[in-house]
Amino acid sequence: MPEVVASGVSFALALLFYSSASALFFLDIARSRARLPSAADTAGPGRQAAARPSAAAALPASRFAPRLLGAGALGHAIYVTLASFVARVCPVHSVHFMLSVASLLAIAVYLVARRRFHIDALGLLIGPLGLAFLLGTFFLGKPNPEPKLNPLFIVAHVMANLLGIALFFLAGAAAALYLVQEKRLKRKRHIERMGNLPALDTLDRAVHRFLTAGFPLLTLGLVTGTTWAHHLEMGNTEEVMRAVFGYATWLLIALVLLLRAAAGWRGRRAAYGTIAGLACASAVLVIYLVRPAAGLGG
Asked: Which residues belong to any copy of the Cytochrome c assembly protein domain (predicted)?
């Protein structure tokens, strides 16, 4: 029973930390910058200095949110480990386990890259992502048994897909923030209330870098997955749908990268293409999740 208690405690802590981090990221983005220019523009040097503490007040959310996100990821990892290897309610080869690992990898990459690429605002989407997959692992229960996978397949296919999905999550988050930022700029309204969202060029570069890093992994996952499916001689509805969406994901991301290099596709068009590719990848995951209830494999 101690492992059951430890599992429950780690889940509760991960839930608390993820929720707190998501709230702080939201507050950090929503915080208005308007009061800083208004204080500085309407006052002399002395009053400008007096206005600076409000900038310092913006620091706690930016400082503590990533730490809480990391603490939530640690609790999430402990919970998934106990659920998979001790309680055995979340098999290692199940999609629930894979989604949890993908979200943990996405969080790890984000925490490492956020300062270098100036993408702290992506935490606004990465925090809820980890929270959603944590809850999914907890509430979806034990999935149907999967075919056993040999170690080579796990290394070549599963890990490539997990790392690729983690990078695509980050690319999709950056693309979504790009579209939000661009929409606000085009409306030319409430520009002073844009919070701490990164500049459009910063978000565009982040999208490209994450896609460039994730595309070779997606290609490897697609090739090994096709070989494995052919080896198992599977041709049911579920396999066909997964193949269609998997190839559509690869094609969309390939087009985004190709058109960026050959035709200068950047900004909004690259963001829409990235989100479309992520939507196809998400459809593959949805098929994994709903098939026990929908009977797709029959």
From this structure: 79-280
Express each pLDDT in 182-225 by its tens digit: 888 877 655 554 556 788 899 999 999 999 999 998 888 888 77
Q: Considering the entire predicted model, what is its pTM?
A: 0.75
Q: Is there a contact between 66 and 111 (Cβ–Cβ < 8 Å)?
A: yes
- What is the rounded distance in angstroms from the CA atom of residue 275 to the CA atom of residue 281? 10
Determine the Cα–Cα distance for residues 199 and 179; give it in Å rounded to an integer.
11
Q: Say how many CA atoms lie within 13 Å of 34 toward its Cβ.
A: 8
Judged by phi (left if over 0) then psi (alpha if -120 to 50, else beta), residue 190 lies in left
Q: Are 274 and 172 in contact (CB under 8 A)?
A: yes
pLDDT digits (tens, 9 = 90+) for 105-141: 999 999 998 878 888 888 888 998 888 888 877 776 5
From the number of C-beta atoms within 10 Å of its C-beta (0-12, 13-18, 19+), residue 151 rates as exposed
Residue (of 83, 85, 114, 80) closest to 99 by Cα position: 80
Tokens standing for residue 40: 């500085």
Q: Which residues, at least 6 apart from 87, have a Cβ–Cβ distance to it below 8 Å?
A: 3, 4, 7
Dmax (CA) for the chain in angstroms is 77
